[in-house]
Specification:
By secondary structure, this protein is an alpha/beta fold. It has one domain. The protein is about 40% helix and about 15% strand. A hairpin with a 5-residue loop joins strand 7 and strand 8. Helix 3 crosses helix 6. The chain is globular.
């Protein structure tokens, strides 16, 4: 009698469940952030963890989710530096670097960001950025916005996915509420200022009101926005749903299809 490969495959615990059991936090970034608050002086031994591209640019970008942060992080530092560390982490593990470096974050209208986060959670993320399994399971029974609000209100920050947390968790001193990031840009309002700031750091940025387009000459073009996302592999997402890779010979056709779908969606 045969046994399926699926039954033979060992089931390993989710690393996030292990983090939670050992440290009281699901994400690796949160483990460091938690102990930055508990034993700040001791955490300075981890200053070696500051990414070299960030040190070279002398620029700290604090990645607030659902505000084009992945594209900005990739354009500035490369594809591997897309973590969601809070500014408190940098201030604690490398206080001299934090004081000397410029730092910035991009924020978004709270209602727009909430709607984007809610859609992200309900759809389980996108094909290029999945919601963690532990939170897929926890939110599986949510029936609407009220359930989602209750889910958030009933939990502390370390019990929430990054997309569910308020922007102040990423950019502020949690005791005083004071911003610890030197420059804050509001998406949609400060586009020109953000474009000039990024250009000064070697990244060309353009905005069309619906998306942010970033160009780092040696690494290609990235874009991430509210409706259309063009990732580094050429994929395009509409409202968080991937439509697969887009190649040079069918790029214009797929673009027209996307525009038609968007117009149809917002004409309902």
């Amino acid at each position: 009698m045969g046994i399926s490969q699926k039954k033979l495959r060992p089931r390993f615990p989710d690393s996030k469940d292990i983090h939670r059991a050992l440290f009281g936090a699901y994400y690796e970034e949160d483990v460091y952030d938690k102990y930055c608050g508990l034993m700040p002086r001791a955490m300075r031994i981890f200053q070696w963890r500051i990414e070299e591209p960030m040190r070279r640019r002398n620029l700290i970008f604090v990645h607030v989710p659902r505000v084009a942060g992945t594209s900005i992080a990739r354009a500035l530092y490369g594809p591997r530096c897309t973590r969601h560390h809070s500014i408190r982490y940098y201030k604690t593990v490398a206080p001299r670097f934090w004081a000397a470096a410029d730092s910035f974050a991009v924020l978004r209208d709270p209602f727009d960001r909430f709607a984007s986060s809610y859609a992200f959670v309900r759809s389980g993320g996108t094909e290029t950025c999945r919601l963690s399994d532990v939170f897929v399971q926890q939110t599986a029974r949510l029936r609407g916005v009220d359930d989602y609000l209750s889910f958030i209100e009933d939990r502390d920050a370390l019990s929430l996915d990054f997309v569910m947390r308020p922007k102040n968790w990423f950019v502020c001193d949690l005791k005083t509420g004071a911003p610890l990031v030197k420059r804050l840009f509001l998406y949609g309002r400060d586009d020109a200022a953000l474009s000039g700031f990024l250009k000064a750091h070697g990244v060309e940025a353009a905005f069309d009101g619906k998306r942010i387009l970033l160009r780092k000459p040696e690494e290609g073009v990235y874009a991430e926005g509210m409706m259309i996302v063009v990732g580094e592999q050429g994929e395009i997402d509409v409202s968080g749903r991937s439509l697969g890779p887009v190649y040079a010979n069918d790029k214009e056709t797929r673009k027209k299809e996307l525009i038609a779908e968007i117009i149809s969606h917002f004409s309902l």
